[in-house]
Specification:
BirA Bifunctional Protein, domain 2; Herpes Virus-1
């Protein structure tokens, strides 16, 4: 656990030093759980958005995008259930004075038991080699069975208590499992209380005349209230989807772990409208497709796993998370939910407006069912940084820090480096830079020795470094260096764009989906 904390500290430090993420309002000692994306962070974030948007909207003729307002009519949140049910079960440790989400404490306890199972499996794999059958071992080994029984028992009690809103039952489970505060080591817990996460503010210039409205806690409702607008104006036929990228706000009491959990964050969501009765088929389809989208980034297949929800949200009949192995362990990266017809039904009820779709094939009207895919942009940013940051020992014994960001997401696709600042090399380098800029985001750098410049580009994740030397002036060739292999090859200036595009163009990643 300590090693993981160190890993997270390394990522935070690197992100700040190289202009990816800064603490917000830092000159005023910061504001808890808020961060600003720096010059390279903004580029990486925009590239992640573009990858999602192109894969979701551009590659699907039956999915379109919108951009709904952050402020919505307050009745929206009554209809959606957020006013009455958008709560977290919180518990305080009396000694450390720290507050925790009770369900997260229990999930972290379960994860520790799961790690014990994984260790048993790895030990056996090493012992038995090629003859090892993981499935058979898990089904028969007494230690594994005993630990799995513990997990099943905890999950069953936790599910029952959360669904029944039995807060005393949740607290009793924490006490029975002897769960201690990670900071104080104390087991001196308060009662569990529910806390609503919505930020409220006032609409209007005079406080007395103002009505209370909310900063949206999710982007989904902006899609639901525009369902008919989009369907009619776009002549959309079911099944079809509406996608959106936007800010959401939650008054998280337990906001920590860098950009993993913040009060202001960004979501990339798509609501897919289907015929009632076909939702489970589409739920399976989107589970598979979204997993493929994530793994296509090359962050390591073993870093992903599925987690089926124990406690379903009030609107869902099926839900799972795609989890990523962050420095803090496996945590939710994307949620896929079968939301039934709950949202449209509620908005129809509260607004008094019909929100039905006439299906010409069935010759009937109905309220569609919805499959939701929702990924946290900031969490995906952290996942990319976590998988990409590496410290390597080279053959000559020296070290380098390299950020192996997928080339298509890298802030700069190439660095243009004149070997020296004279003899016409800077002028030639600027000419090459100008030609590449029309297609890619590239950086020009002429300061310091070439080796030091290579290291700097490695640290910010630039996949290619192009060196302009005296031979360039003679035969119009350059040296192009690959960030990951550090191999260099001599190529014609006319080939540079093709070489970069092979790995860093949108086409290069989208054609694998």
């Amino acid at each position: 656990m300590e090693q993981n904390q160190d890993r997270l500290k390394d990522i935070i430090s690197h992100a700040k030093e190289y202009g990816f993420v800064f603490p917000s309002s830092e000159i005023y000692d910061g504001l808890a759980a808020t961060y600003d994306y720096g010059q390279l962070g903004a580029e990486l974030k925009n590239n992640i958005k573009t990858y999602w948007w192109k894969a979701m909207v551009q590659l699907h003729e039956n999915i379109v995008g919108i951009d709904a307002a952050i402020f919505m009519h307050p009745t929206t949140w009554k209809a959606s259930g957020h006013v009455d049910a958008f709560n977290d079960p919180l518990i305080d440790n009396k000694d450390s004075k720290k507050r925790y989400r009770a369900d997260v404490l229990l999930e972290e306890h379960i994860e520790k038991i799961r790690i014990k199972i994984d260790k048993e499996v790895e030990k056996a794999r090493t012992r038995f080699g090629e003859e090892f059958s993981e499935d058979q071992f898990i089904a028969t080994n007494p230690n594994v069975l005993r630990n799995q029984e513990k997990i099943d028992s905890i999950e069953a009690r936790m599910k029952y208590a959360l669904e029944a809103n039995d807060l005393e039952g949740v607290r009793q489970l924490i006490l029975d499992l002897d769960i201690a505060c990670p900071i104080s080591g104390s087991k001196n817990w308060t009662e569990v209380r529910q806390f609503n996460l919505m930020f409220s503010t006032e609409l209007g210039s005079v406080a007395g005349d103002a009505s209370t409205i909310y900063l949206r806690p999710e982007t989904a409702q902006g899609i639901f209230v525009n369902f008919l607008n989009v369907q009619k104006s776009g002549r959309m036929k079911i099944p079809f989807g509406i996608a959106q990228i936007g800010k959401a706000f939650r008054n998280e009491i337990v906001a920590r772990q860098f950009i993993f959990r913040m009060r202001e964050f960004e979501q990339m969501e798509m609501q897919f409208f289907v015929r009632p009765g076909q939702e489970m088929e589409w739920y399976g389809y989107w589970k598979e497709l979204r997993t493929k989208w994530h793994k296509n980034l090359g962050l390591g297949d073993s870093n992903y796993r599925f987690h089926d929800h124990l406690k379903l949200a009030h609107y869902a009949n099926a839900a799972c998370d795609i989890e990523f192995n962050f420095p803090m362990g496996f945590k939710e990266l994307e949620g896929i939910h079968s939301r039934t017809d709950f949202d449209l039904k509620q908005h129809e009820k509260y607004s008094g407006k019909k929100l039905q779709y006439f299906d010409p094939e069935l010759n009937e009207s109905y309220i569609p069912y919805v499959i939701e895919t929702s990924v946290g942009l900031d969490r995906l940013f952290l996942a990319v940084m976590s998988a990409a940051l590496k410290n390597e020992i080279l053959e000559d014994g020296s070290e380098r820090t390299v950020l192996q960001i997928p080339p298509v997401l890298a802030p700069y696709k190439a660095a243009v480096l004149p070997l020296v600042k004279k003899d016409g090399l800077p002028e030639k380098a600027r000419e090459i830079q100008k030609a590449l800029q029309r297609e890619f985001n590239v950086q020009y750098d002429e300061k310091d020795a070439i080796g030091r410049r290579y290291r700097r580009q490695d640290s910010i994740g630039t996949p290619f470094s192009i060196t302009i030397d005296h031979q360039t002036l003679e035969n119009n060739t350059v040296t192009i260096r690959n960030r990951d292999t550090m191999q260099q090859e001599r190529v014609a200036v006319s080939q540079i764009s093709t070489i970069i595009a092979r790995e860093a163009s949108w086409k290069s990643i989208l054609e694998k989906l």
